[in-house]
Amino acid sequence: MKLKESTENYLENIFILSQKNSMVRSIDLARSMSFSKPSVSRAVHKLQDLDYLKVHKDGHLELTGKGLEKAKAIYERHLFLTQYFMSLGVDETTAVNDACRIEHGLSAQTFELMKKHISYCNGCKTAKENCSFDFSNMDIKKQDS
Q1: Considering the domain boundaries, does residue 143 fall inside one?
Q2: Assigned domain for 80 exists
Q3: Which residues are registered as beta bridge partners of 63?
Q4: Is residue 145 in a domain?
Q5: Mean local confidence (pLDDT), 21-33
Q6: Can you give the residue range of the structural domain that contains 112?
Q7: Rounded (10°) angle between helices 108-123 and 65-87
Q8: All residues at 6 or more sequence positions from 95 whose CB lies less than 8 Å from its CB, including other chains
């Protein structure tokens, strides 16, 4: 099932916050995304209904296995596209903004082929001289399900 861009943004932000903090609450999410508490509350309930998120009695938000898998995939796209654009010479701010806009609409097939192309590019001696792409910035496996 294809999720809406806003739903994917919530999952990605919960994941990022969970990497920085031991506990993520709705208020943390509202602050990080600059959204109102009611908007975040609606999104949190929707994520619960979709089985992407568990809300503990103390208000702590926890991605389910399904939610964590989806959030990691979204974040991987974001990191990949950001790094890819920067390797082309795009400044970091523009690269981050462009990656955020593109990550949600890119097909799985195109994304996988882009990754294969970059791996091939980095394996080629000539290409290495002209291609500064660095996969080491894409370590998103810090949190396991």
Answers
A1: no
A2: yes
A3: 53
A4: no
A5: 94
A6: 75-138
A7: 50
A8: 81, 82, 83, 85, 86
The pLDDT confidence band at residue 90, using thresholds 50, 70 and 90, is: very high
Same domain, 50 and 33: yes
Look up residue 35 and give its amino acid. Answer: F
Question: What H or E segment, with its residue span, contains residue 54?
Answer: strand 53-55
Name the least confident of 14-18, 100-104, 137-141: 137-141
Structure tokens at 70: 């989806």
Based on the fold, state whether residues 90 and 107 are members of the same structural domain: yes
**Is there a single domain that holds both residue 106 and residue 123?**
yes
pLDDT at 39: 94
Under DSSP, the state recorded for 3 is P
Looking up residue 97, the CATH number of its domain turns out to be 1.10.60
Residue 122 has pLDDT above 70, yes or no: no
Tokens of 136: 């080491």
DSSP state of 1: -
